[in-house]
């Protein structure tokens, strides 16, 4: 097959490309220029898409002996990922930009361009597995549970899975780094990138404040209604957050307080004890199915954050005034489920689909 290998400049994409070459595919390496004004160097493990990353990607292509190109998708990335991120926080939700990037950039813009140029697939360094099942290609969890990225890939539909390759799905991170060293790839020991790639200093609140401005408001006790403190913008808080509240005094019982609600229109942040975070019903809008949608209630598991534990649940599809809604009834209550994140549905290791969390409650 003719394969586009997306080279980020890191070790995972480098080994994925090397394995695609070794498998006999006709591979072309591409690096995505996603930042409008890329920095020259990364700061440790923070950020990505720097000029340093582009140079590392080119060096990998040289070692592998494959053609290399840079695709400038910075405008598309700004519109579909960065602007969406700002709009979601402005509405009081907590988005996951990696999901949006996979949906809109890597497996929409990149895959569409690759197919238009006559390629058959796009290979990336994601840790997930694609399995040929009775109903077509299926997305499954990676063998390395600690590195599994199926959660952020759960936005892919059947057509996108048909054009995706994840060569690392059956390997551990340790094996990947050791293989990179054996192959003479200089990125073998390069730190993984963390946090949000377009906020390299990790200060999400400050970054949002620069774009949304200050919107002072109150921090209010959700049970008593008492004003406990003040803030510069409700958009800087997320459900389940404990740090950064600066309340000045503890709760009457000495317990910790958490953010239990964010009301951006009134610029109010509600805080309370952890019990107020407990929910066992999660609703999600704009569901996307990795294949055929379930034709009835599904007994499976759901994952509610990128590194969260699977939770047993019964998942059903319901019809609402504004479209289909995914409803997950959790077998056990869980805490800190933030609207704007994804609820991802699994049947064993198979990803069934995902939706954007819109509402939570207790049954």
Automatic annotation (TrEMBL):
Single Gene Ontology MF annotation: tRNA-uridine 2-sulfurtransferase activity
Chain positions of site Interaction with tRNA: 126, 341
Region named Interaction with tRNA: 147-149
Catalytic activity of the protein: S-sulfanyl-L-cysteinyl-[protein] + uridine(34) in tRNA + AH2 + ATP = 2-thiouridine(34) in tRNA + L-cysteinyl-[protein] + A + AMP + diphosphate + H(+)
Domain tRNA-specific 2-thiouridylase MnmA-like C-terminal stretches: 286-357
EC code: 2.8.1.13
Main location: cytoplasm
HAMAP family: tRNA_thiouridyl_MnmA
Family: Belongs to the MnmA/TRMU family.
Descriptive protein name: tRNA-specific 2-thiouridylase MnmA
Organismal lineage: Bacteria, Bacillati, Actinomycetota, Actinomycetes, Sporichthyales
